[in-house]
Amino acid sequence: MFSPRFLLLRSAASLTTRSLCTGGVSQGGRAPDMAEVRNRLREIVGASTNWSDHQHAMTERVSLSSMLAKSQQDLPAKTMKDSYLEVHLPLGSEPQLREKYLTFHNTVRFGRILEDLDSLAVLISYSHTYNPVLKRSPLSIVTALVDKIDMRQHVIYPDCDIKFTGHVTWVGKTSIEAKMHMSQYHDGAYSPVLDATFVMVARDPENKRAAFVNPLKPAGSEEDMIFQEGEANKSRRVELSTASLLKVAPTDEERKIVHGLFLNTLDTKTVSFSSRVLPPNSVWMEDAKLKGLEICHPQERNIFNRIFGGFLMRKAYELGWANACSYGGCRPRLVAVDDILFQKPVDIGSLLLLSSQVCYTQGMYIQVRVHSEVFDPLTRQHNTTNVFHFTFVSDRDVPSIIPKTYGESMLYLDGKRHFNQTVEG
Fold this sequence. Notes:
Blueprint: H1 7-12, H2 34-45, H3 51-60, E1 85-89, H4 95-101, H5 110-128, E2 140-151, E3 162-171, E4 175-186, E5 189-203, H6 221-242, H7 252-264, E6 282-284, E7 289-295, H8 309-328, E8 333-342, E9 351-362, E10 365-376, E11 381-393, E12 400-402, H9 406-424
Parallel strand pairs: 6-12
Antiparallel strand pairs: 1-3, 2-5, 2-8, 3-4, 4-5, 7-9, 8-11, 9-10, 10-11
Helix pairs in contact: 2-5, 5-8
């Protein structure tokens, strides 16, 4: 069964596929592919595939500030169908494309799928804000949050075509929620693979301050239901942020969990606060880490001259997967991606430090948190850019993760919260 939030996508699928904000169809009447998505994004903002020309184009975008709306009321309302897009990834019909997405074990690199989802979410947002009068969009639309990615099936075939569909489902004054659905053609039909919800923000041409986007006007009860779900998602995000363990103390129940973990690790011979013993079939949290380093080269830039958010997600996912694989002793499967917050953009030339941590386990499930930060070797300063949350499942029960310090206990509780959201969702 499709979830209610994708009812519109099923009905809109009968429409002629939009040609990436232009209202026509792609070459030959077929749906566009991911290469065309990225080409269209470069056209929308005036970016170039050449590094030196790209830098110059970004400087020229400053002059577009005069085209920004002074208020949201100055912009025409759009419907959900205005932003609907269908994009194909022809892994089956174009074998030469398959190499980019292939793993050593003849499966699909999910990190590449994350990159594609990020590009599609940006283009969906530009489709919503499209103004045929303007040659270039004055808006800089970037990913603020990956709210949720739920896997509907664990197997993604490397030699079968993939279809992405999506549209805007909720709009604030300067933010946009885009939902996407991915399916794959197998055994004569397309079957659902995943559902994804991204939150995008619009900023001025220099990507320095917020900019207004077109309001969204639901057309009928079906779209109104989807819009109300977007409102509920926003309220949930605010509630979760308010209850963050970085801001408020754990609940009474959570405090009891932490104390129980502590009591379970006491050395009965010494009965000392400082003497701890690891329980059977358990791993100390400090021994379940994996780190990585990326030098951010111009090749990984986005259309706004910063490091592509999809690239960051791919690297974080692959490190998190490797950590879960090492921890569980087998190849884990992804269950969900949850609450990826893009706190700061990553500049080209940055040293990007990635640190993955197994922070919660339950039965066959492994919750992994990946922390991303930029390190400046000249000032020796560290600045957090992203935090990623991944839920994996093994083919057998995994060891219990045990925190030792108070800080690790907070990571444990935070991981448990994210896991519970995944299970309950």
